């Protein structure tokens, strides 16, 4: 009886060692993913800011060229459609809708800001 308890304790110690090793690795992986995620969020914010500036400048330039606002909005939407077709990653439909809404708003803001 006592011998079988030693065997059980040894097996449990081995199982604990393996699980502790996995837990430590998981913590390390989680921290690395957190750092990557933070960097991606920061990069995304920079890209969105640059995109906003570019879209508003484009809309203002097209207005100066005499293009109607509707045509400029359609062109920006077409550019977004093309970009979406080239992306191979799974995309969240809500995020895409938000981006498209922002693109339209930025286009209109840029178009009418120059008037």
Please tell me about this protein's structure.
The chain has 3 helices and no strands. It has 115 residues and is mostly helical. The protein has one domain. The N and C termini lie far apart (91 Å).
Characteristics of this structure?
115 residues; mainly alpha; 89% helix; 0% strand
Quick summary:
The protein has one domain. 89% of the residues lie in helices and 0% in strands.
Catalogue the unreliable spans: none
The run of helices and strands is HHH
Beta strand %: under 5%
The termini sit apart by: 91 Å
Task: Count every helix, treating DSSP H or I runs of 4 or more residues as helices.
Answer: 3
Structural class: mainly alpha
Mean pLDDT score: 93
**Rg over C-alpha atoms, rounded to the nearest angstrom:** 27 Å
Number of domains: 1
Sheet with the most strands, sense and barrel status:
none
Q: Portion of residues in helices?
A: over 70%
Gross geometry: rod-shaped
Tell how many strands the DSSP assignment holds: 0
- The oligomeric state of the chains shown is single chain
């Amino acid at each position: 009886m006592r011998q079988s308890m030693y065997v059980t304790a040894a097996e449990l110690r081995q199982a604990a060692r393996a699980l502790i090793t996995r837990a430590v690795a998981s913590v390390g992986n989680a921290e690395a993913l957190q750092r990557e995620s933070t960097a991606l969020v920061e990069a995304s914010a920079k890209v969105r800011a640059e995109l906003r500036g570019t879209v508003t400048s484009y809309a203002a330039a097209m207005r100066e060229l005499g293009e109607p606002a509707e045509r400029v909005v359609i062109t920006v939407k077409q550019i977004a459609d093309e970009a979406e077709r080239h992306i191979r990653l799974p995309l969240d439909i809500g995020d895409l809708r938000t981006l498209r809404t922002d693109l339209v708003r930025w286009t209109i803001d840029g178009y009418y800001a120059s008037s």
